[in-house]
Amino acid sequence: MNEKDLAEQLALFQAILDAIPVPIFYKDARGIYLGCNTAFSNYLGLSKDHIVNKTPYDIAPFDLATRYIEMDQQLFQNPGRQIYESSVKYADGTRHDVLFHKAVFYKKDMTIGGLAGIMFDITERKSAEVALKESEERAHEINRQLEATLRELQTTQTQIIQQERLRALGEMASGIAHDFNNTLTPIIGFADLLLNMPHYISDPVKVREYLQRIRMAAQDAANIVKRLRKFYQRNKQDETLEMIDLQEIIQEVIFLTEPRWKSQVEAIGKQIQIVTHYNPLPKFLSHASELREVLTNLIFNAVDAMPEGGTITITT
Questions:
Q1: What is the DSSP letter of 261?
Q2: CA dihedral for 267, 268, 273, 274, sign (positive or negative)
Q3: Which pLDDT tens digit goes with each residue over 127-174?
Q4: What does the CA dihedral 142, 146, 152, 153 come to, rounded to 10 degrees?
Q5: Secondary structure (3-state) at 310
Q6: Are the C-beta atoms of residues 259 and 181 closer than 8 Å to each other?
Q7: Is-contact 229 288, C-beta < 8 A?
Q8: First to last CA, the chain
Q9: C-alpha to C-alpha distances, 80 to 35, 55, 67, 109, 110, nearest whole angstrom
Q10: What is each CA distance from 157 to 154, 161, 164, 180, in whole angstroms?
Q11: Nearest to residue 316, comparing CAs of 289, 288, 282?
């Protein structure tokens, strides 16, 4: 090949390199630049004449030049393909993240002639990776905060439910005590009459009448205790359900809450009545005590919502 043909091939080779928008360069085995394309010279902000026959120390900051030379030596010692990332400063003063791809080339005698390299700007990709990582960290933190808030809400909800249960139980207990005192009054009264009026004992009719009233009052007291125990009775296994008659449950709740919606309200000169409208319903599986607890809270809430009195209607 004559010099003219060689010059034409070199010119064609350079034209092809210049047409590629990615920075490309090649060096000899000493690390001196043999050539580059237009994209590479534009990246450095130097003309090709200021790059060719120069070392990295001539065109790059000392720390980066040192790193480039070290990587070149590693490639020459272990020929093959070398890929690594680096941070470089462009001619406009901005710093970019780039990905280097390097490989050695050989001379005719199969000795290493140098290396060729390509630079890919990965600044946007790195920025996206950082943004994605920060987004994942923020999402993780938000999830952690949401989980903590959920736990707090669950704890608060449990506390509120417990407080409502205690309040309902306290009001019901107060009403039961009132009813219980009412049932004890005739028992004590008629017993005192028999004890303090001995002449009544000689009157079988009077004694029988008094004993019947004492017995009736005692049965009423026993029924109150029975209903109270049944109201909060739990099954041995919480998951065990029982067949429920809704009308019966409602009647029990109305009876047990009567002191709250009737006696206590009448004591302040107001009046509340409970009206029921029952339609035939089949029995169903449920927890009777929990159902009574729900209905009790509904009645108490209705009473609280009617400070001037009124009517509570329960319909099935």
A1: I
A2: negative
A3: 888 888 888 888 888 888 888 888 888 888 888 888 887 777 777 777
A4: 150
A5: strand
A6: no
A7: no
A8: 108
A9: 21, 22, 18, 18, 14
A10: 5, 6, 10, 34
A11: 282
Model confidence over 50-92: pLDDT tens digits?
999 999 888 888 888 888 889 999 998 988 889 988 877 766 7
Going by the DSSP 8-state scheme, the letter that residue 282 receives in this structure is: -
Rounded distance between C-alpha atoms, residue 22 and residue 40, angstroms? 7
Q: Are 36 and 24 in contact (CB under 8 A)?
A: yes
- Other beta carbons within 10 angstroms of residue 23's beta carbon come to 22
Give 108: exposed, middle or buried? Use CB within 10 Å, 0-12, 13-18, 19+.
exposed
Between CA 72 and CA 67 the distance in angstroms is 9
Cα distance between residue 282 and residue 246, in whole Å = 9
> What pTM does this model have?
0.43
Distance CA 201, CA 116 (A): 128
Q: What is the pLDDT of residues 102-126, one digit of tens each?
A: 999 998 888 898 999 999 989 888 8
Query: Which residues lie below 8 Å from residue 121, measured CB to CB, with a gap of 6+?
Result: 96, 97, 98
pLDDT bracket for residue 218 (50, 70, 90):
confident
AA letter at 80: G
Contact 303, 261 (CB under 8 A): yes
How many Å apart are CA 267 and CA 145, to the nearest integer?
50
